[in-house]
Amino acid sequence: MRTVCLAVLALLVGVAAVAPVRAQRAPVQLDLPTIAAYEASLPVLVAEAAGHFRGEGVELGRFIFSGGTAIRNLLIGGRVPFGVLGTEHIPLARLAGAPLKGVVATYDLPNIALMVRSALRGEVKTVADLRGRTVGISAPGSYSWSMTLTYLRKAGLDPERDVRLLPIGTDPGVLYTALQTGRVDALAWSEPVMTRAEQDGVAYVLVNIFDRNVARRWMGTDRVLSNVLATTESVIRTQPEAVAAMVAAIQKGLAYIRSHSSEEIVRLLVANPKTNALFQGVPPELATKMVNRIRHGYGTGCLSRGGYEVELRRMMDTGVVKQPVGFEEALEPRWAGVCAR
Asked: What is the CATH number of domain 28-109+224-330?
C-alpha cells in the first residue's frame, strides 16, 4: 500500500513539474480623461478612491479633467484608450468616421442646468427672456452646447441670432467667475458650480434639470443615457480584458454611491489626493449638498436603449446630429448589459 501511495505522489509531482505555470496578468496602466463635472465623474472617482480599479487590475496614473469635446479628440487620436464623456459624442464621432463606442453608463439623467446671474432675476424669468444675452458654454460640440441649443430652440429662440454663445471651458473657478463678473448672463453647466453659485447669491437656477418634473418637461422623460465610459472598437477587439476590468470597477463605484450616504462619499473622495482634485476649494458641507442634488441619477451602469434613443432624438431635433446612429452601432453592452427599460 505504501509503495502505491509513493508511486501516486511521484506521479502528481511529475505532473506539477511539467504543467505550465499560469502567468499573472500584468496590471493595466493608463490615464483617464473625464468631464470636469461631478455627475459624469463621480463613479470613476469613487472607484479609484475605494480601490476598485486596483482590485480589477487597473492602475490609474492620473485623472485628466476636461470637456467632452477634448476627450473625444483624445480618444479619436489614440492618445488614451478610455474616456468619460457625454453620450452625444459617440454618434458625432461615428458619423465623422471614428468608431467610438460607449461600454458603461456613468449617469442616467440629463445634467446640464441653466443658471442666470442674480442681477437679472427681475428680467430673465424664462428661457425666452435670454434673447440678446450672452450664454456661457464649455465649447462648441460639447454636451453643454447641445443642451443649450435644446433649451433655446424649445423656447422659440434661434441660437445663432437671438443669443451669443460664449465658450469658456470647463474650469469650475472660471465658470463661477464668469457669472460673478457678468462676463456671461447665463451659464449651461452643473456641479460643482451650480449649488455654489446659488448659495453665494451669484446666480439662480433657471432650468433645474435635476428636478424630475423639469426634466420631463424639457426632455419628455427623466431617464436619459447622458454619460458613458467610451473607448474604440480597436480597444474592444484587442483588449477585451481591460474593457471588462474598467466596466467592473465603475459598476462597483456606482454600487458604492447607491449604498453610502453623500457625507461618506465626500469623505472618501476628499481623503484621496488624486480624487480630491475636483473638490479643491469646495467645503465638505457644500460638496455634500451637491452630491445630494445629483445622486438619484446613478444606476447600475447598464446601457439604456430608451435613454439613448431619447438623446439621439434630441440631437437630431436640434440639428447636432444629421442622421441616426443606432444603439448597437454606438454602444457595446457586452459587459454592462442592456437596461430593462
From this structure: 3.40.190.10
